[in-house]
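Table S7 (text form). Paired inputs.
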Amino acid sequence: MNTVTINGKEYQIPKVDFEAICELEENGVYLLNMDQKNPKLATMIRGLVAWIMGVSSEEASQEIQSHIQNGGDLVGIMTSVTQAVQNSGFFRRSGDTNTEEKVTEMPQNREQRRKQNRNNTRH
């Protein structure tokens, strides 16, 4: 599974499936239109981070701000997410014979991920 480091913490990028695409759209991220110019790049990155971390947009903005202030950049976040999208089974053609990405369990919903990520980041 793909991971990304945001503000010094490593997060697993959730599986990109139909539910994930819908959740991302609710956060202002339109993966199905990524080939078109998106003038709201910052909003898209914030939405991706909120989805990955399982937090609100406001909390994602705070983490991104701290990430940048602590010497991080946005390129690593975008690269990790792009790789996760490219590796997802959702965007493969139906004729693709690669079956490594078969879904064997139900994806977690956003609330479950929020609780899990909050528990993982508390020490």
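Next pair, protein 2 of 2.
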Amino acid sequence: MSKMRPELGNGSHGEPCPRNGTAYLMILNAVESRRGLIAGRLEAQGEYCSIGAYFHVNPRTALPTDIIDEVAMVNDSLVNVTPFQRRQRMRCWLRWKLAQLGMPGFEKAKQP
């Protein structure tokens, strides 16, 4: 169970579970589809955090708990920023993370 997003419950029940670079890339794609991101919870009034955005776009999938907690921790650490600024910074961090994992096309990502 995720420590940062306990409302997700206890893991998957046979759903596909992307891992490593694939998971981060799918989260990045979901983040890019939002206008802004909230902090501290999956969803509030139709707005989502990074992980909430992922599950909104990919409802019948799962994610490894360590990835959920890592991404949620970065998302929630961005305090005193607007939802749009949080989205921009998460995009930057996710691109950097993909570069660190050696994903093609992300080699030139700068450290956030």
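The chain has four helices and two strands.
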